[in-house]
Fold this sequence. Notes:
Elements lengths: L4 H9 L19 H13 L3 E8 L2 E8 L8 E6 L16 E3 L2 E3 L7 H17 L6 E7 L8 H8 L6 E4 L8 E4 L1 E10 L14 H20 L3 E2 L3 E2 L1 E9 L9 E10 L5 H15 L3 E5 L8 E2 L5 H9 L6 E3 L4 H7 L4 E3 L14 E3 H16 L3
Parallel strand pairs: 3-6, 3-7, 7-17, 8-16
Antiparallel strand pairs: 1-2, 2-6, 4-5, 5-18, 8-15, 9-13, 9-14, 10-11, 12-13
Amino acid sequence: MPVAAHKLLRELIALPSVNPAFLPGRDDLTGERRVADFLAFTADRAGLELEWQEVFPGRSNLLIRLTPARGKVRRRILLAPHMDTVGVDGEARFKPIVKAGRLHGRGACDTKGSIATYLAALLELAATGPRPRETEIILTALVDEENNQSGSRALVKRGLKADLAIVGEPTLCKVVTAHKGDLWLRVTTHGKSAHGSKPHLGRNAILAMARVVEELETNYAATLRQRTHPLLGHATVNVGAIAGGRQPNIVPDRCEISIDRRTLPGETAEQVARELCALIKHCKVDAELMDTKNTLCPALETDPDLPLVQQLLRCADQRKPQGVDYFSDAAVLASGGIPSVLLGPGDIAQAHTADEWVELTQLERLTRVLIKFLRDQP
């Protein structure tokens, strides 16, 4: 009888692991170490091999290895959820609650539910076998996905190779082979300050920005709706924040907007920058464009015809793969040469919400799918 994923998930929710970027100075709630220590203790007790990979001081990826029965690795599969969560409004969110067949609490679906199902499957293989003869399975519990994906970037930088990575994200237990990329950009318009009683002596940077925003949200957005992907729909743009001016009686000489641009496979950061620079030029304003992420967050598109992906689809009783709009560690791993898919319990609609939850039946189902898939490996 496999270790119940819902029991593991209860333990994980009760261990706060908020990304430090969201609650600075709250060491009692932030950082992944409590979760990593629990996983290490549980895996070590089951006889699994452990490796710590420091990413930041006090924040390390944890690699839990199930070595092949013959000791020779001809194939490697990664199970790659992340340990960090977004912040909370009230510490009660770290108290797991079951009601109406759902387990509630911060991280329930994003992505401690994935950690629980992945670990439950790995523990079952370690306890009852048979373990794959020539396939190494590594649960890579990653840090910092919610902020800068530093954990997956470190994994790639240090040269870990694999034949497939199954990345834990809430996908309703559906295999996902494509997701959008993400760019965060800032546009700054410049004007000339003047006294509010003499506005004609100045040049209003907010008025200039209004023209840019109008163009972005109308003509540019309409152009993006013409770019489509069979699994992802169309590319999008969103103006998410604006700031400018100091007080009513001063003509503002500066205004900034922050833009979220979701990209499709094939679109590049350079291409988007050229498009937005052309848009600014068309608006005839004094403005500049800046990338505020400074890390590549490309779209993901993994070939669904890869044998391992096809095998996983069959185990999930799924005819065709799906796509999602959000960005994940999968694209980072794929950029490092590891074919990657997403698969996890829960719905992205519940992620980051005040009342995050996951259905218990999904935890059970995904555990069974993973056990079947992993046992079928050579």
